[in-house]
Amino acid sequence: MRRCGDHAALLELTDNAAVHVAARLARERLGEALVDVVPGHRTLLLLWSEGSTIPTRDALALERTAPTRGDRAGVRRRPTVVVPTRYDGADLEAAAAALALSPAAVTQLHAQSEFRVAFTGFAPGFPYLLPVDPSGAVAPLLALPRLTTPRTAVPAGSVAVAAGYCGIYPRSSPGGWNLLGRTDQTLFDPAREPPALLEPGMTVRFEPV
Amino acid sequence: MTSIEVLTPGALTTVQDLGRAGWAHIGVPRSGAADRDALIRANRLVGNPDGAAGLEATLVGPRLRFRGDAVVALTGATTEARLDGRPIPMDAPVAVAAGEELHVGTARTGLRIYLAVAGGIDTALTLGSAATDLLTGLGPAPLRRDEVLRLGAAGRGLTPPAVHPPSAVHPPLAGSEAVISVLLGPREDWFTTGSLTRLLSEPFTVDPASNRVGLRLRGPTLERRRSGELRSEGLAPGAIQVPPDGHPILLLADHPTTGGYPVIAVVLSAGLSIAAQLRPGQDVRFTQPTPGG
């Protein structure tokens, strides 16, 4: 556990699935003064309200608890969200060329893979997706580097890959990831309950339309 | 219900409360008043709950006309404020009569001036908060000329406040050096020992590119002792992250929820209000309190 000032702590966990197990347990065990539980790739940031004391012992215990097989199955069992996607992204052909595949093969590779929302960031509702099977065939596609020159405007709903992740842009914004396609789903709407379509720990699959 | 007319908005005036905590896991910044202590103090002075929505003016305050009687309080950065031309005190409740004009001047010490009005500003809530988040665009837009702000019913009453506010923390004088307490980490092990020493001994200057997202600091370059990229992780308010150029950024209210730059230290909560009041060009020094001392 690493302290972050006087009202936050960063837990370091073995992998992303363990992050989601710890996030659930933190919300159950660490009390009402815990105001935010923020997953990272392999970390969990716990933020307490100002003035409260960090329950160091409980937080350490959480970090040291190896998730059981049942815990991990619990993460996997969360309902899968299907994201209908048109695979017509501006970088689909270049991505295919980089992997010596056809665009259709890249589409198939991406749409047959199962992803987990590792964490969010960059914009409200922007999911950083990791393959549920880290050694799966989709890994080289996700490993494509970011564009040398980021685009000033990426269309809302763009499904993109770079730097080991797949992501979906909730709204039009600058961006440097490789665009594979686009979905009409609303990723984030503050007036909707729940506001984010994809929350950390959820499983995601893309369906070509 | 009375209302307030915005005659001039000032340099950048936003509606702020204590923000939208609890949504960081889906990428929503906490936002809210950059200097939370100052907003709470202003609210208590007019008898509002701590989290009522008020105004946060940056450097140059707004000119407002009140369409009904009201009670107001100004806190935070010190400024000359006038009500129909008469000077009014800061850090005190002031009665305003219908039709009067409140002219909030330019900040003399500190950067952000807070105005609370009895009843609070009544505006639509986004994820439970009235705060304007300039990173994501959530919440109301910054104040515009001729806009009309409605007042709410939060703790409404023209009686003197029952709750004594915390005493004012005076923002550091322009030209003088601010001192802010930090705790090293969580990623101090990414930096050379020389960089840790420089962080805790040499002054940094606030860059003009600073905003509600963060203070950009110029000073000694903070060097990493290891290469590679850190996997993205959650960011706490007051985190001092260091991009590859070695110039630290101290995160304020509208900071992103996750990031991949290593955080060398985090400001202790008492220092966040000081950080929020630093002006471009001002110097700041960081210290780490000795354990137990």
The largest beta-sheet of chain A arranges its strands as 5-13-6-7-10-9-12
Q: What percentage of residues of chain B falls in helices of 4 or more residues?
A: under 10%
How far the N terminus sits from the C terminus of chain B, by CA atoms, comes to 51 Å
Write down how many β-strands of chain B occur, each being a DSSP E stretch of 2 or more residues.
21
The tally of strands of chain A reads: 13
Structural class by helix and strand composition of chain B: mainly beta
Unreliable stretches covering 5 or more consecutive residues of chain B: none
Strands side by side in the biggest sheet of chain B: 7-6-9-4-1-12-11
The chain pair with the largest interface is: A-B, 40 and 37 residues
- Chain oligomer state: heterodimer
Silhouette of chain A: elongated
Q: What is the H/E string of chain A?
A: EEHEEHHEHHEEHEEEEEE
Order of helices and strands of chain B: EEHEEEEEEEEEEEHEEEEEEEHE
Largest sheet of chain B: 7 strands, antiparallel
Number of helices of chain A: 6
Residue fraction in strands of chain B:
25-35%
State the separation between the terminal residues of chain A, measured CA to CA: 45 Å
Number of H- or I-type helical stretches of chain B? 3
Question: What's this entry about, in short?
Answer:
The complex is a heterodimer of chains A (209) and B (293). Chain A is α+β, with helices and mostly antiparallel strands and 209 residues long.
